[in-house]
Design goal:
With 473 residues, this protein is α/β, with parallel strands linked by helices. 33% of the residues lie in helices and 24% in strands. The chain has 14 helices and 18 strands. The strands form four sheets. It has a seven-stranded mixed sheet, sandwiched between helices. It has a six-stranded mixed sheet with strand order 5-6-7-3-8-9, with helices on both faces. Helix 5 (133-140) packs antiparallel against helix 6 and helix 9 packs parallel to helix 12. The relative contact order is 0.09.
Length: 473
Amino acid sequence: MSRMIESAGLSKRFLLRHNRSGSLKERFLGMLYSSQRERVEEFWALRNVTLNVDAGEAVGVVGRNGSGKSTLLRLIAGIHRPTTGTLAVRRGSRIATMIELGVGFHSELTGIENVYLNAAVHGLSRDHIEPLLPAIVEYSGLTAFMDVPLKNYSSGMSMRLAFAIAANLDPDMLLLDEVFAVGDEAFQRQCVQTIQRFRADGKTILFVSHSSAAVRSVCDRVCLLDHGSLLFDGDVAHGLDEYERVAFQRTIAVETQQGPPPDDQGGAWHRVLPGGRWAEGGEWAFDMLQREGLQPGDVVLDVGCGGLSIGRHLLAFLERGRYWGFEVNHALLLAGVSMELPRAGLSYNFGHFFHNHDFDLGALDDLKFVVSEGFFSRMPLNRIARCIAAVIRRLAAGGRFFATWYDNPDPNSFVPIQRGGFATYADVEPYHYPFTILAGVCEALGARAERIDGRTGAGTHPRGESLMVISRM
């Protein structure tokens, strides 16, 4: 397969001018007052990026705002030139771009006139574009508006016209920057179908997006940029998980800098559980682990750590870096980290936090202790099976996975079970399950499940959940 893009040590610097002098008066004041003087700041949008893309690849470029994604596409398109490093695009390649809404258009010109203008920007003459004009108009769905000035178009209509031109130019490479951010659902479906057709035809695609679903539908590779540096280059699933991890770490760094929330937020939503007793459940589980032999030097994985009801105790007890908190609900984990840790005088840097929907536990291995308190009541049985399968692969010989769940003592019954002021169900959240079914799932996965209610001496679970321990066979 031939190479389409080669870059080595690619960097781009911009000069940001503050208090720029625009008049003689401003310049004079700048001579008198330092605060009024023009100040130039260097901003490196990209730093030392080495990236190769083969013809026919569909590469998703992800990252937070300001990470350098759009700058990378502009360098490839030839809009900017690198400050340092090298960038080569295969000679003779026709590149279609949708990098910024309105580029290559003029608001005073009609739709038809803008088609010719935009085509000229892509290097096509009027003779080249005329045979393509009917297909472009039909694709855009703007037949009735082609003689209307672009200034009267909505942003969605402008995007339709721009994409219609790009889709019909038969490019070798397509550069897309947030193309799904504007337009209705029908337009987005049309875009996806066109991009998939391009992929089938062996076209090269670089796709910038904040939408994980869009990246999954379009791309077979992900590159993650952060602060201008390339942090990840690989498969889509791991790339998006890494993107979420980086975004989460940045977010909680900001959230925790704000200090502990007011005391009147003690009833925050992340503490609301079926049956209540958020704090008591965490204390009970922590006591149970200590009774089972937990030591400060042990590594503990808290599966479904949620609002950190156990995590806040484990982070204070374990040596720094020994706690790992996993969650499938990003908002729940963020609430726990940003609210509970400051209250307890703890930093998120004391442990590790990650989340994804695939139960990807990364490089964790040889775990002695894994705990899950209240998590199984949030998941259907197939998700529990996936969770157990992921955990037992990471258990050390003799390692144990302690999990609480709402028990259904009658496997033949599917009616709700009343538990004081709330109920659990067989098919909707909060779930309950017979132990025999959970034990059967474990056995099918090569694990052993044992009920240990009351064995630890910790007493009855505050919400009435049962306790089992799962270990490798």
